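Hey all, quick one. A colleague (J.T.) asked me to put the adenosine-5'-diphosphate job into the tracker so the inputs and the structure tokens live in one place instead of scattered across chat threads. No bug as far as I know, just bookkeeping. Sequence used:
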Amino acid sequence: MAKIMMVSSEAHPFAKTGGLADVVGALPIALQAFGDEAAVVMPRYRSISKDDAELVREDMRVWLNGGYYRVDVYLKMHRGVKFYFIDCPGLYDRDGIYGDRHGDFGDNALRFAVLCLAALGVARFLFRTDIFHCHDWQAALLPLYRKFYFPNDPTFEGTRSLFSIHNLGYQGYFPHRQLPEIGLDDRFWNAGALEFHGGGNLLKAGLIWSDYLSTVSPNYAREIQTAEFGCGMEGILRDRSSRLTGILNGVDYDDWSPETDRFIAAPYSVDDLSGKIACKRDLLEYFGFPVDDRHMRRPIVGVVSRLAQQKGLDLLGQMIAPILDEELTLIVLGSGETALENMFNHFSWARPDKFRCWIGHNNPLAHRIEAGSDMFLMPSRYEPCGLNQMYSLRYGTLPIVHATGGLDDTVDGETGFKFWGAYGPHLLEAVRHAVKVYWNDPDTWGKMVRTAMRRDYSWNASASAYSGLYQSLLDEAAEPEPESFLPGVAS
Ligand code: ADP
Ligand code: GLC
């Protein structure tokens, strides 16, 4: 049994912008079945109430740049797991998680540096840790601080760190002048350390100084070692390929199952799909479409997504006219880049006969779209894992996906529709093919729906793989730190 500390900027149900939160909210719970005890350390953002939390450490000092930050640590128990919240109002008590309407916060490097050091404090005082499991660039400095600040500290002796890449497209850039603010100096400013094309890059700290690396699907683990998907990190990742693995994310079926989903109009299951019709009616009504025979018979194609370049929704924009010429209804829920928001708002206005969107973040509506749609579109340019296609499978909502990353790993010809190459015409062809099967071959459609719903992507297999990985890291003979134990750091 190992004690695992997950360090993350997001965890469902406390703070979420994307799938990272789903993973950090579910994996610690799933690990319990394997005898591991996992806790989560994250910031206490403004949206997270202290009222139902226990103050477990007051005035813990985080030393940086010759001064210190005072943080309080709050604890909440959630489904048997300890969630520790780092309360430092000057850094986290703001309207957004990473930024506000003016853009990203300028002090994000500092905000997440303090998170990493505070997590080491939690390990010292509150949750003696065997494995630090750090997620994405926000937690990438932890392995570096652990080695650089506390090289011979008994608290951390024998501990190991695992760094999980959820999305290589986000690397935590910062300018050179902020290096002292995060407690580092020019020894770290070179291409073998944090410097990247003249700027600073937090992600590199995790890639270089963690004991082991993982990412969220086997396919993405291969892809990121190539120039096409490596976002400039492919060299480091190839060098460390013997210390890199891909473990597919799971689905928390307690949250995402049509049998028990509290957000949807009627429950349904693979044995009795009648509730799905009620969910379709509910979705049409919600978006203000007439609930007549024509609309009920037309397939609904759903999209729930961050509106970002990664997600390939500009390809949908390119092809929206011919797509809407098909006998279908298209519904989009998303928020993000203004250009994409404007584009979808425009089409809602221009083509109200077949298209509607809801701009913003809306979890209940995400569930209703999964349940009420017939197809789910994910044309992502790249997709480390992707959760929505797995949710869609469970809801009998057949995914149409670009064959990349985790989408390629989880959707096949028996459960959905794939296209190769992130090009508008390929996307259009896949949508046309799906629509044709839907209208012309209901038997095949019904069979695919049932096959999709029976696919099992529960956390069990993934949590078992993580548990095995933690153990193998702990079993590795604790090697004495070599003299230059910080590769890349000039002396
Ligand atoms: P990513 O993490 O890259 O955004 P994933 O598919 O892994 O992609 O996870 C996305 C998660 O965020 C899913 O749980 C999805 O339902 C949710 N989500 C994305 N956009 C929205 C939105 N606008 N409203 C509600 N939930 C959303
Ligand atoms: C990222 C990826 C997504 C993945 C999620 C959780 O946000 O874009 O593909 O499912 O992290 O690992």
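Adding what we noticed when we looked at it: The pocket of alpha-D-glucopyranose (ligand 2) is lined by residues 18-20, 23, 166-167, 216, 249, 383-387, 406 (CB under 6 Å). The chain has two domains: 3-250+461-485, 274-456.
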